[in-house]
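Field: COMPLEX_INPUT
Field: COMPONENT_COUNT = two
Field: RESIDUE_TOTAL = 714
Field: MODE = joint
Values follow.
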Amino acid sequence: MSFYRSLSIRHKQIVWAWTFLTVPVLFYVVIRFYPTGNAILISFQDWNLLGERNWAGLDNYIKLWNDPVFWKVFANTFEYLIIGTPFSLVLSFIIAYHLDKTRFLHSTLRMLYFLPFMTSAVAMAWVWRWFYQGVPIGLFNNILASVGISQIDFLNSTTIALPSVLAPAIWAGLGFQVIIFMAGLRAIPTSYYEAAKIDGVGWWTVLTQITLPLLRPTMVFIVVFSSIGFLRIFDHVYNMTTNNPGGPLNSTKPLVLMIYDTAFNGFNMGYAAAQTVVLFLILLVISLAQLRLLRSD
Amino acid sequence: MKRYLRTLALAGLTSAAALMANTASAVEIEYWQYFFDARVKAMEQLIESFEAQNPDITVKMTHFPYADYRTKVAAAIPAGEGPDVVQLFYGWLNDYVEAKLIQPLPADVFDPAKIDAEFFPMVQAMKLDGKYYALPTAVRSLALFYNERLFKEAGIESPPATLDELVETAKALTKLDGAGNITQVGITTGMTAQDHHWWREVLVRQFGGDPYVDDYKTVNYNSEAGLAALKFYTDLEQTHKVTLSTFMDEPQAAFKAGRAGMHIDGSFRIGSLNDVRGLKWGVAELPAAADGTRSNYSSYWVNAITTKAEGERYDAAVKFMEYIASDEAMQVWLDVVGELPAKPSVGMTEANANDPVFGPFIRGLAYAHTTKFADESAQRQEMVDMVGRITLENMDPAESLDVAAKAEQLKLDEYYK
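Field: COMPLEX_OUTPUT
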C-alpha cells in the first residue's frame, strides 16, 4: 500500500488503467492467443483427438503441399474472394448511391436491403438450396421448364456450382455494406457538392472527383471486411452442399470446409491445424496488402 | 460449549460415514450415448428395468448431439470423468482401444467362444487378439423400400427379386414431363446416402468381386466385377434414365414425398417413414443377382466399458453391459428404435423374421458384410467422386474406378501405417 502511495498521479493512472485492462487481456490470452498457439503446435503433431499427440515435424505441411485437393480448395477460396469482393463492392455502392438520393420509401427500402444480413445464414442457405433444385421442386428450374428452357444444374455442376453458392452469400452481406456506404456518403460535407453545383460540373465529375475519393476510407473498410468474410466462407457452402460437402468433386469446397472435414470427420487434428495455420497466413497477408494498397497516397 | 462442539463434530463424522457407507452399497454408473430420440427412449426403458433387477445400482444416462460426441468422450475419460459404459460406432473401435479409452470385456462373463456362436458373425469385428472389447444391442442392414401406391398405379404386382427386374420395374415407375424432365424416379440413387454401401458390399459381390481383401486393408474392387457393378449403377441414370442422383435433393426426401418408386435404405429409416402420413410403403430384400447371389451391408453401434470404471463401478458396469446385450434388451431395442437384434436367436424368431417390415432386414443379416472403415466419410467421398467424375466430367468408368481405388488405398495405408 505504501508503495502505491509513493507513486505519482501519472503512475497511479497507469496502474488503474492496467487493472481494468487485465480482464480483457486475460480473456484474450485464454480464449484467443492460447488456442492460436496451441493450433500452431498441433500443426506439427499427429493427433486423432483420442490418443496421444506425437511429433510429426513438417509432415503435415509436406502432405498439404502434395495434396491435390488442397490446391483445388486453395483456388476455390480465392475464387470466392476474387468474384465476391468486387461484385459486392460495386453492387452495394450502386445501391447505396441511389438509395441515398431516394426520398420515397427510403427507410423501408433500406430495411429491405438490410433484412438478409439479419437472417440466419443457415436458414437462407437451405432456402436457396431448394430454389436451385431441379424439377419438380426447384423454383428457378420450374420457371425455366415452364417457359421451355432446359434445366440448369445449379448445384450439381463443376463450373456453376461455386457462383451459385456465392450468390446468396453476396446477397446476405449486401445490406451491411449498403449501410456502411450510406454512412460514408452522408459524411461527405455538402459544401463540396454545393461548390460543384455553382461551378456547374456534371454528375460524373462529381462522382469521380468528389464522392469516390472521399469514400476511400469507407471502401478500405468494406474491402478488408468482405475479403476476410469471403476467405472464411463456410456456412453457405456447407449448408447448400451437406449431401456432398464442398462438392460436386470439390468444386465449391473452401479452405474452412476442408479444415472442418479433416478435423471433425477425419479426426486428423494435426493436418487440420496445418491447414488452419495456412488460412491464418493467407488472411494476414491479404489484409495487410489491402490496407497498404488502399491507404497509399 | 466445547463439549457441544465435540458432539457436533462427532455427529458430523458419523453422518458422513453413514453417507459413504450408503454410496458404497448403491453404486452409480454413467452411461453415454449420442442423442437420437428413439435410442434415448429405448435406453431409458432398459435402465428402468435394469435398476429394478439391481436395486443397488443406479445408471445415469447422458446424451450429446452427435457432432460433439467424440470430442466429449475423448476429453472426459482420460480426465477420470464421464461414462463407465459408453456407446461408440463399430468403426471407431480401433481408435478407442489404441487411445486406451475402453477395456476388454471380462472373459468369464462374456465368453468369446459363446459370443462367436451366438451373435451374428459380423460382430466378430469387435474382437481383438481373442478378446471382445464391445458388443452391440442392435444391428442395421439394408433393404428395398417401395411405394405401394405407385406400384399399384403402374400395375406391378411384387417388388423386384433380381437386379434385372429392378431395372424393368424402375422403368415402369419413372415419369417424365412434356420436356423430358424426370418428375418421378423409378428408384432413388445417390452415393451420398446409403448407395455407397450398396455398391461396395452388395453390387461388387453380386457381379463376382470381392471389394476388399486383407481384412479391409487393401482395395480390391478395381476389377472386372467392380467395373461391371459400377456400370450397372451409373447406367440406371445414364442409360435407363430411371433415376437422377440429385432428384429432390435427397433420396429419402423423394421417397417420403411419394415421388420415388423404390428406395434403398437402412432399417433406421423405418421410424421416420412411419411418421409420414399417407405414404403406403413396403419392404423387400435387396434384389439378388441373376445367379441368385445375395449380399447386404450391416453396421452397428456398440457398447463398451471404459477404462474409467474401476472397483465396484466396474462390477456394476459389467452387470449393465450384460443386461444391454441380453435377449430382452434386444427385443426392446427392436420395438422402440426399429433396429435389429444382434443375435440370430432373437432376430430369427418366427414373429420377427416374418414381420412384413423387419423381416427383409433380418433375413438380410444372415448374408450381410460389415465394412471395416478407416474413415467412413472419406471412403464414402471416394465413391461419390467416382460417380461424379463419370456423370459430370464424362470420364471413362474404368479410369474413374481406378482413380477411386488408388485414392482410397492411399487413405487406408495412411490409417494402418
